[in-house]
């Protein structure tokens, strides 16, 4: 690993976000209008709340071709005529669970002493929504990051056969953090390279997410659970006593008439630790995509930890639903 951590030095060593963007939903922010998908074409983050989009400016994702182009605020490339950087598919950074649900992982590093970016993207099984998250591992005490989601513009609210307006979504959640990864995907440097100039690889997080939505009352809530680091550095794994992470909770938020939402994330102590948001898409809200931005106490032993995550899910009862959906008992007479 490129940095040696101790319990006392850890807080000072974590890379910080480059900007002063807020990291939770506030009264000044609303859910906005989700961008509209155009596979393989550049789509800006206009309409996505700044607490979620952060440094991300635009994305061009083609899930069929497996290509991803990204434009961040700075330090990912210097060509002003073509600001999008082409990311390289890096399936070795994806867990089995992520691959099984269609998540694609990409990376980008211009040279061995430039920032190393990781991106995770996916499209729902019906093609109605996409989501992505991007982050570099930090260099010179700062990092760049952001989340993205978009819809195909054909949204209609959920209307399940039981007519209660209640529907569920389940699947895999994938995140990136400002803690050091194991560095396996970094371009090699001479062993004597000074730590002050080494870039780091972001440690990745994987978990499960479950969402309930009420399209009669236009409300969403849920939880992200069974969370753990998939490639945390050995030093941090020892310091934290393992790679498991606490569950986090998506506090009830309003679904707009356009199918978008923005809410608060809480830890098990019911403390606000960030924001989540996204968009429903497709006929009767067949898919949902969204992102999280956690900038609170989601690792009690550490200060200044930050996580950006993405989820792209299919509604229970639809083709491509998660296996959890089959295990949910259904009330025959609601």
What does this structure look like?
The protein is mainly β and 334 residues long. It has a single domain, classed as Beta Barrel (Porin). It is 7% helix and 39% strand. The chain has five helices and 18 strands. The chain has helices spanning 10-13, 50-53, 96-100, 234-240, 323-326, and strands at residues 16-17, 43-44, 56-62, 67-72, 85-89, 104-108, 117-123, 129-136, 142-143, 145-151, 166-180, 202-214, 219-229, 248-254, 260-266, 272-281, 287-294, 307-315. The chain has an eight-stranded antiparallel β-sheet, with no helix packed on it. Strand 14 (248-254) and strand 15 (260-266) form a beta hairpin. The protein is globular, with a radius of gyration of 19 Å. The termini are far apart. 49% of the residues are buried. The model is unreliable at 1-13 and 19-27 (pLDDT under 50).
Cα shape? globular
Poorly predicted runs are: 1-13, 19-27
Instruction: Report the CATH topology name.
Output: Porin
Given the structure, what is the number of helices?
5
Name the average pLDDT: 86
Taken as a percent bin, the fraction of beta residues is 35-45%
Order of helices and strands: HEEHEEEHEEEEEEEEHEEEEEH
List the strand order in the largest sheet: 2-3-4-5-6-7-8-10
Cα separation of the termini:
55 Å
Please state the CA-atom Rg, rounded to the nearest Å.
19 Å
CATH architecture: Beta Barrel
Percent helix, as a range, is under 10%
CATH class term: Mainly Beta
